[in-house]
Amino acid sequence: MLSRVRRQIIEPIYSVRSGSPQLSYWKYLEKTQYLSLSELKKIQWSRLTDLLNYAYYNNRFYRRRFYEAGIKPEHIKYPEDLKKIPVLTKEEIRKNMPHIISSRFNRHELLRFKTGGSTGKPLEIYITEECSELRNACARRHYRWTGWKPGEPIGAVWGNPPLLNSLKKKLKWYLLNPVIYLDTMNVDEKAVLEFAKEWKRVKPTLLFGHSHSIYLLAQYVQELGVTEIRPKGIIGTSMMLLANERKFIERVFGVKVFNRYGCEEVSLIASECERHEGTHLNIEHLFIEFIKDDGFSAEPGEQGKIIVTDLFNKAMPFIRYQVEDIGIPSDRQCTCGRGLPLLEKVIGRTADFLIKRDGSKVAGISLIENTLTKYPGIKQMQIVQDAIDKFTINIVPDRKYLPEIERELVAYFRKTFGADVYILLLTKKKIEPEKSGKYRFSICRIKG
After folding, report:
1. CB 59 within 8 A of CB 317
2. Which end of the chain is more exposed for a tag (fewer CB within 10 A), N or C?
3. Domain count within the chain
């Protein structure tokens, strides 16, 4: 009853009084998702050309960037022309702050936040409140694909949850967006039981959070016999969703997991619908490229660096931003009927690829998946490459773990990286998350 009141009365009134565009843009997105791909691309291209013109005339950094490339916005007539603009890196953003903030905006009046910085230094991001609300609308559309309805509470497994330290925040939480949190920095028996108690009181319908942290929660739910946490939909995001972890989560909770991919810099990039046939690219909000090492576009089924342009952030434009992930585009069409194209798969972060002696790279996430599938008795695993010939394998064992598995693991990794590489196997009670609350399955410490 209260969820319906939030949805039908409180939220529309708040939207009008606050001037927030989230509600109206979400309703727009509910319609555009079923447009044809060609119609969606027309919307995308119109927004892209508008952004390029804006950045050229209102942003010192991009005006110089266009000048040095010998082009103007009107020279970008086709998607391939976009490659004339250099790729934007994190280091360039750091070096060019505050010139990368558009002239019509005061940096101190914008919303400011930082990336988690799991692969290096944190990155400062600036957006307008309007841009933030538009991003929230994109996320809400994906919430809806799980069966969640606006106004229904959400249970979040997330790092550094916000504090309700004022009456205003508490009222907004209760009336608009009730969310309960399990802090990923502290997923243990006590915290899970407290989360279950809070779940029973608030009654969320959606479980949302870091994919691996949801997996850890599922383990505790099974071991402790927790029955209170029963969502009707689950969204795993923020880190790779491993196949074996997806199966375990779905078995424990009895519902499907919806995979979501994004990053803090540009927000939601792709998300899985109810058909689970791939993740739909958020092309109304972003222009997404897949670029191979030779500079050419990756064809469907080929790996490419994911390059993203945020079509709405004019305050701090991200034009051809390298998110440092590797992905595979798809030419398949989802049977759900949505025109949004599919991302076949994200292979992993470039910093999480491990290096062989010949210079070739191996996706750490693939090694993890293969190992967990092949060898029983491993609850968690992390690969750390300290040098070209030195690896540390951190393992959290379960009751099925046997000593002979260690010999097989050493043989497996030596077959992959060389017969004489040094392999240190360490068994641990748990693998600690990063400061952001996320987990990294593989870490390459080789610089360059």
Report:
1. yes
2. C
3. 2
